[in-house]
Amino acid sequence: MARIGEWIRRLDYLLRRGHHEEQLRREMEAHRALLAEPKAFGNTLRLRDEAREAWGWTWLDDLVHDLRYALRTLRRTPGFTLTAVVTLALGIGVNIGMFSVVNTLLLRPLHDTNGYIVGIYSRSTTASGELRAISYPNYRDLRDGTTGVFATLAAHTPVLVGLDDGRGTRRALASTVTANFFQVYDVALAQGRPFTLEEEQPGGSARVAIVSDRFREQLGGDPNVLGRVVQINGEPFTVIGVVPADFTVSIPGPELWLPLGAHDVFRPEETSSAPFAARNAHELGVVGRLHDSISEEAASPALATVARRLEQAFPVENQGYTLQLSRPSRLLFMPGPGSSVITASLTALLMLMPAVVLLVACLNLVDLLLARGQARRQEMAIRLSLGGRRGRLTRQLLSEGLILALAGAAVGLVLSRWATGAVLASIRPVIPIDVSLPAFDLDWRVLAGTVGFSIVATLIFGAWPAWAITGRAAGSDLKRQTGEDGRRRIGSVR
After folding, report:
1. C-alpha span between 157 and 141 (Å, rounded)
2. pLDDT digit string, tens, across residues 166-207
3. How would DSSP label each residue in 259-293?
4. CA torsion, points 309, 314, 317, 320, in degrees to nearest 10?
């Protein structure tokens, strides 16, 4: 409680500093007036400093003073300030833009549910550890045998289709799913209804589709899109639902979701030898939402039990394979338990190039600061000769660097938002299919990354020049400057 009271007192001093300073001045004057010899009261400036140290945070006062002085110094050199800010804006902006892309595609959660979503994979028990998809009969047995573990278990598979929505035929990414697919992600459709169990059955005749919000916008944002007929692989499909605008479960995301019963319409020719309903037609990915009280470790034995039963009951199709639980992949075309390693590698690779750009920008600023330091050497020498500490002067110069970095980050943030939109707009026409991507919105990760890039930039381009500039011998700089001034005066007299 004492510590909390002290913090409240210090915060009050920070917010009402002028009031407390004036009150202290009056009290000191009153005490001095009561003394026969006012000088006996002592040094009032030193006493005020001691009071400030007791009432507030000295480091915060020093920081505010340093920042104010840095702002005044930078205002006196607008050309240098503008050059530094633009240079840093380009370097930091590239990093912010790339980090926004990495954050959206690889880091930020794609969905928020009330349960824990996992993927189930069929893995070979041999040394190769080969992964394969799951057949529909195996999925059905897995779903029925793990009701105590999973609240919902769904199957899906991505397909490329030929889509004619009235604007001509084009390639599109779709996903055939079981009826409970949206239930796994705990999402309610923005319009319409989900698929039914009858529409899920292999070989079904239902020709219905659920579309993304982006697809609806491409149709002119028609609020009456339900009931509209689109041609998919030459067959008419009726739109029965629209997903919410922020619904994304993979990158890239599909434009359409189709019932599993219509999957035969889209199956590649090389897989058509075995009927989709056959146990050896391994074509599905499986995702599930665990019960709230079930952990991944508790679910693994149940999966192993189902895998043994399938191996015993259907040895031809399931011999040498077990079931493994892992987090589902964010990347649609990179499924499997090892996808997190791929994601981490992509993150490092994508951030490497902009980091080099930031380093080059900082090194250019190092040269500018060192050249500027030549012009300020007399100032530094005078301050050192008057008792200024090298660490204090270095901190002052770092404050200038921090202001430049924050200004560069602010401008870079604006540039990155524009650049990201421009890059996406230029890439979409090149991609052979139209895909759905999550919105590249700012969140705390991007803002934290912006602050982080600013601090890194400050340390890279500010620390070395600041330490080098303040490390000069004060006496030699003063003598050199005095000699140069004397020679200039003599020359002017001549």
Report:
1. 18
2. 778 888 889 999 999 999 998 899 999 999 999 998 888 889
3. EGGGGGGT--GGGTTS-TTSTT---BEEEEEE-TT
4. 40
Contact 96, 446 (CB under 8 A): yes
Count CB-CB contacts under 10 A for residue 327.
13
pLDDT in tens, 449-465: 778 877 887 777 777 77
**433: CB partners within 8 A, 6+ apart:** 160, 170, 171, 172, 173
At position 167, the amino acid (one-letter code) is: R
153, two tokens: 């278990």
| Rounded Cα–Cα distance for residues 138 and 144 (Å) | 10
Provide the pLDDT confidence category of residue 61 given band limits of 50, 70 and 90.
confident
The span from the CA of 375 to the CA of 390, in Å, is 18
Mean pLDDT of 46-71: 74
Answer whether 179's CB lies under 8 Å from 259's CB: yes
Convert 383-396 into a string of H (helix), E (strand) and C (coil).
HHHCCCCHHHHHHH
